[in-house]
């Protein structure tokens, strides 16, 4: 479990409405510092610049999907060990298992509850080695 | 004197025959052979007795004179007595019902009678020869020689009997001749035993011929019986074979009809995959006529060069193993070049000796089915994503409003936002239920079982459903102690079942009442009962309560909420976890839903 608390979150999500809800949830309920990136192709630079504690990744995004971005992060110096939580509207158990198998710190389902999202992320944060 | 006139019988040919048929003779029943010999001997008796009387009468007449009158009369009386005794024996034998079983006994009696007959003539030779004239002596010698040699055919079936009969005639006579004091008679006395022995030898050999004949007859009888029996068996077998052939032909016609009319392609091949026959559906599926394909290799004609499953190596292994192969999917090339995906069931036909007769491949074109499956999967995935994404925004926004995160909303605004959130949640539940039932029914649903404590499960279900029950003014209560056991179940899915049953019970309970949960453990099964005091389940709805989209009354759905899929999903989930689910009308009103699941054995409850 990391010694410091979870304070900085970077969320890569293409849907504007969900971006806004997530920001409200994490900032107002979770009291966290949030950076939202809408274009996954710009995510690597954005994450490197923001230096979050944890990255929240949507799965299905145009141009580059979440798993692809995740693989790129694993190949990028400085992001290799960054904890990543996927958040997806996909419901298949096989697909969720696939994400966990890739090395994600956690997988959350959409729709998420804005009231509970910060606490769900903190629970995952506490389980990290 | 005796049988010097009897020519030696040429037995060479019969000896050869005996040798040739040695094996066959061995098959004769000895008791039957003995009975036949006895029958032969008794068959000679009437002639023997008649001759005995006739020759005895002539001898009495010839030897009659005043000096020996009493002796001749005594002898004649002896002849009559012996003949009478033999007649009694003869008729006794003829009347007997146990000739076969008691053949040996009849043989013994006959030997005694032959001895008695011989003694009669031996007596005549010994007593009358010395006391009569020369002419009468010649007559007597002639008589005795004739009687003795006549014994050869009469006793041909038993040479010891002949030897005994002739012996008692010849021996006293020889003794008389030897002691007569005449040189000629002394010489004759020397010759008589020699002739006697020669006759016994002839009788012995004749006896062997008879024996061989009897044995052969019986052996052939037995062979004939065997032959008749075998013939009958053969006839029966031929009849059975003909019936079997007719059945096989009928089956063949039936099979041909099945293959021809079956809505599935059937192709017959040999071990080299050479096509021997195919049905019209196969012709239609592959775009070839049967005549074009028969004689060609299926492997090189029907499958593309880069086909990965049905390769020549796979085929060689299949032919070597000779075991049926089911659900083999492979790409096939139609005559028009179109590639299709087929599912094969390939069965080797092997005869009793293990030889491969032919190979039957049944196949279906599943190209469209696979495409439909792919589209369905894509549709389900898209449906899931495209419906959940806007719902995330809707539910998220409404939750932010109702929870006051973005500021306090006024009374009616807050109330309407709550209504909107609740209905968005219902929409989400419906989507989740539809996805669940689709996964379960397509067999793609996998459980993630783990060890779960029953008391924790009940407690957690109460925490999750309390706020829902509160909305209806209904309490949740546990009745009795929860057994200290563990279950090997998918926690999330079992919680889904509990939530469904608890929320149903809460929805239909009257305000102010309580939903009761009772747990018991019997015979390795945990039983969980969830009881309400609702209106109960209508009689006409009970049979279909666990079917999809089952609702007792569609107005209830609108009033109470629900997708009509919940109980169908519960039933399938419980069954997937090796349990069973049901319900009973509750005494005093209401319903008890219950499910049973196996207890995790050998688990330490901690």
Short characterization:
The complex is a heterodimer of chains A (129) and B (606). With 129 residues, chain A is α/β, with parallel strands linked by helices.
Notable traits:
heterodimer, A: 129 residues, alpha/beta, 5 helices, 5 strands, 19% strand, globular, B: 606 residues, alpha+beta, 5-stranded antiparallel sheet, 5-stranded mixed sheet, 19 helices, 60% helix, disordered N terminus
Question: Mind explaining what this structure looks like?
Answer:
The complex is a heterodimer of chains A (129) and B (606). By secondary structure, chain A is of the alpha/beta class. Helices cover 40% and strands 19% of the residues of chain A. In chain A, strands 2-1-3-4-5 form a five-stranded parallel beta sheet, sandwiched between helices. The longest helix of chain A is centred in the N-terminal third of the chain and has 14 residues. The model of chain A has no long low-confidence stretch (mean pLDDT 90). Chain B has 606 residues and is an alpha+beta fold. Chain B contains 19 helices and twelve strands. Chain B has a five-stranded antiparallel beta sheet with strand order 2-1-5-4-3. A five-stranded mixed beta sheet of chain B has the order 7-9-10-12-11. In chain B, helix 6 packs parallel to helix 8. Chain B is elongated. The N terminus of chain B is likely disordered.
């Amino acid at each position: 479990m990391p010694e410091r608390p979870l304070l900085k979150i970077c969320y890569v999500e293409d849907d504007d409405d969900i971006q806004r809800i997530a920001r409200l949830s994490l900032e107002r309920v979770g009291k966290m510092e949030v950076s939202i990136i809408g274009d996954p192709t710009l995510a690597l630079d954005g994450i490197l610049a923001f230096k979050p504690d944890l990255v929240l990744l949507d799965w299905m995004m145009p141009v580059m999907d979440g798993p692809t971005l995740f693989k790129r992060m694993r190949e990028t110096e400085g992001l290799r060990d960054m904890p990543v939580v996927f958040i997806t509207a996909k419901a298949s158990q096989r697909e969720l298992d696939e994400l966990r198998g890739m090395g994600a710190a956690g997988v959350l389902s959409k729709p998420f509850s804005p009231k509970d999202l910060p606490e769900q992320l903190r629970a995952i944060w506490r389980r990290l080695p | 004197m005796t049988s010097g006139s009897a020519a030696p019988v040429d037995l060479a040919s019969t000896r050869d025959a005996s040798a040739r048929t040695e094996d066959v003779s061995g098959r004769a029943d000895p008791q039957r052979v003995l009975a036949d010999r006895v029958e032969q001997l008794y068959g000679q008796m009437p002639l023997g007795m008649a001759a005995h009387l006739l020759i005895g009468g002539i001898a009495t007449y010839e030897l009659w004179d005043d000096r020996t009158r009493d002796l001749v009369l005594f002898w004649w009386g002896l002849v009559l007595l012996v003949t009478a005794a033999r007649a009694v024996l003869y008729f006794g034998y003829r009347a007997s019902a146990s000739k076969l079983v008691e053949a040996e006994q009849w043989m013994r009696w006959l030997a005694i009678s032959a001895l008695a007959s011989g003694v009669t003539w031996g007596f005549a030779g010994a007593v009358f020869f010395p006391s009569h004239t020369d002419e009468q002596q010649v007559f007597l010698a002639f008589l005795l020689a004739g009687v003795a040699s006549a014994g050869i055919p009469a006793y041909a079936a038993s040479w010891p009997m002949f030897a005994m009969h002739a012996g008692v005639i010849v021996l006293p006579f020889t003794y008389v001749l030897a002691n007569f004091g005449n040189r000629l008679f002394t010489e004759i006395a020397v010759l008589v035993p020699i002739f006697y022995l020669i006759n016994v030898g002839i009788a012995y050999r004749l006896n062997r011929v008879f024996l061989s004949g009897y044995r052969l007859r019986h052996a052939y009888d037995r062979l004939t019986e065997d032959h008749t029996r075998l013939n009958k068996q053969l006839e029966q077998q031929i009849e059975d074979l003909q019936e079997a052939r007719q059945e096989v032909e009928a089956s063949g016609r039936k099979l041909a009809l099945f293959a021809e009319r079956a809505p599935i392609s059937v192709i017959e091949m040999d071990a080299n995959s050479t096509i021997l026959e195919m049905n019209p559906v196969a012709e239609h599926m592959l775009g070839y006529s049967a005549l074009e394909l028969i004689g060609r290799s299926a492997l090189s004609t029907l499958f593309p060069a880069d086909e990965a499953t049905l390769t020549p190596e796979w085929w060689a292994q299949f032919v070597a193993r000779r075991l049926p192969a089911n659900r083999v999917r492979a790409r096939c090339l139609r005559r028009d070049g179109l590639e299709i995906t087929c599912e094969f069931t390939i069965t080797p036909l092997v005869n009793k000796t293990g030889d491969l007769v032919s190979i039957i491949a049944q196949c279906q074109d599943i190209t469209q089915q696979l495409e439909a499956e792919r589209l369905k999967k894509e549709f389900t995935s898209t449906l899931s994503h495209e419906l959940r994404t806007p719902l995330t925004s809707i539910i998220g926004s409404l939750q932010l409003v109702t929870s006051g995160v973005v500021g306090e909303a006024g009374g009616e605004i807050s109330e309407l936002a709550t209504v909107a959130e609740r209905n968005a949640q219902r929409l989400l539940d419906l989507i989740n239920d539809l996805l669940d039932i689709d996964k379960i029914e397509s067999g793609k649903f996998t459980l993630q079982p783990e060890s779960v404590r029953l008391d924790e499960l009940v407690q957690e279900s109460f925490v999750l459903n309390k706020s829902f029950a509160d909305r209806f003014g209904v309490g949740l209560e546990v009745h009795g102690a929860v057994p200290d056991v563990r279950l090997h179940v998918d926690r999330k899915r079992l919680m889904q079942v509990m939530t469904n049953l608890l929320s149903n019970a809460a929805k239909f309970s009257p305000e102010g009442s309580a939903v009761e949960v009772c747990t018991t453990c019997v015979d390795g099964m945990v039983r969980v009962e969830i009881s309400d005091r609702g209106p109960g389940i209508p009689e006409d709805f009970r049979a279909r309560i666990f079917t999809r989209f089952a609702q007792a009354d569609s107005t209830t759905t609108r009033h109470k909420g629900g997708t009509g899929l919940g109980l169908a999903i519960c039933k399938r989930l419980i069954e997937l976890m090796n349990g069973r689910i049901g319900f009973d009308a509750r005494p005093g009103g209401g319903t008890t839903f219950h499910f049973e699941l196996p207890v995790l054995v050998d688990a330490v409850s901690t």
